[in-house]
Amino acid sequence: MTAAPAPIAVALDAPDLETAARWAGLVAPHVSTVKVGLELYLRYGPDAVARVREAGGAQVFLDLKLHDIPATVAGAARSVARLEPAFLTVHAAGGPAMIRAAVDAAPGARIAAVTVLTSLREEDLARIGLEGPAHDAVRRLAALAVEAGAQALVCSPQEAAAVRAEVGPGVTLITPGVRPAGAAAQDQARVATPEEALAAGADLLVIGRPITGAADPGTAAADIAAALRRTPAGGPAASAGS
Ligand SMILES: O=C(O)c1cc(=O)[nH]c(=O)n1[C@@H]1O[C@H](COP(=O)(O)O)[C@@H](O)[C@H]1O
Fold first, then answer.
1. Residue 113 and residue 101: Cα distance in Å, rounded?
2. Residues 87-130: pLDDT tens digits?
3. Hey, what's the torsion of the CAs at 87, 137, 100, 110, to 10 degrees?
4. The pLDDT value given to residue 234
5. Would you say residue 238 has pLDDT above 80?
6. Backbone phi, then psi, for 173, in 5-degree steps?
7. With 60 as the cut, is the pLDDT of residue 235 above it?
8. Rounded Cα–Cα distance for residues 153 and 112 (Å)
9. Burial class of 232 by CB neighbour count within 10 A (0 to 12, 13 to 18, 19+)
10. Is the pTM of the predicted complex or chain greater than 0.90?
11. Distances, alpha carbon 238 to alpha carbons 6, 40, 154, 203, in Å
């Protein structure tokens, strides 16, 4: 019997579409979602979404991190809505009117509001003018985003439990900054293991380089998926994606 795909979104941050499509094909039997981000989308546009979708069959998360005035974000969200991504990211710091504009313009996608980037350290927050600590900033932005209609939130696994307590069970919690035990953090600052992220209540774990940088991305994805199946989920909204 084949196991159900794990609640993982593999970040296909590849320099070319052939590589991304190959990764998508290798990981798709093991994960629910693949993520197309700026690197791929800015080079290939809608073809990137079509090609990775074709390659594997996992749902597509479009991570464009929109952040502009509401009218511009509405136009951008409308432009990509026809690609039918399961998730589309915006920066929560764009404010409630901007988030609402994205929600209204792309009704078929779940708008995922990015709270505080997982690459930021506590000491970075003050420098960019964000009142910390990170936990408080993330909770504040999460509450604002959900009030504005966001159906999903992006935060570090370290804040997932606090965010869940803040917004309740109906919102999809997405956590990048995931590193298997012993893996290098690279440019991520607020990290946790896949098992810790799931136990903290995350619904969907974004994992890129620990999978795509492995000699065999399919096996790396399968190993993490198997570890997650042995971990009790922490949150009530433990189903990933749509
Ligand atoms: O929105 C995201 O997906 C995102 C938000 C965030 O705060 N931190 C973050 O790392 N990401 C994305 O998650 C992925 C993480 O990749 P790895 O660090 O290689 O696992 C990248 O594609 C990032 O763009």
1. 12
2. 999 999 999 999 999 999 999 999 999 999 999 999 999 999 99
3. 10
4. 64
5. no
6. -100, 120
7. no
8. 5
9. exposed
10. yes
11. 11, 29, 15, 5
Q: Give residue 107's identity as a one-letter amino acid code.
A: P
ipTM (interface pTM): 0.99
pLDDT digit string, tens, across residues 163-178: 999 999 999 999 999 9
Cis peptide before 133 (omega within 30 of 0): yes
Distance CA 76, CA 74 (A): 5
* Amino acid identity, position 24: A
Q: How many A from CA of 72 to the centre of ligand 1?
A: 23
For residues 95 and 78, give the distance between their C-alpha atoms in angstroms, rounded to a whole number: 18
Question: Atom 9, ligand 1: which residue's CA is nearest?
Answer: 176
The answer to whether 223 is a known ligand-binding residue is no
| Ligand 1 centroid distance, CA of 1 (Å) | 32
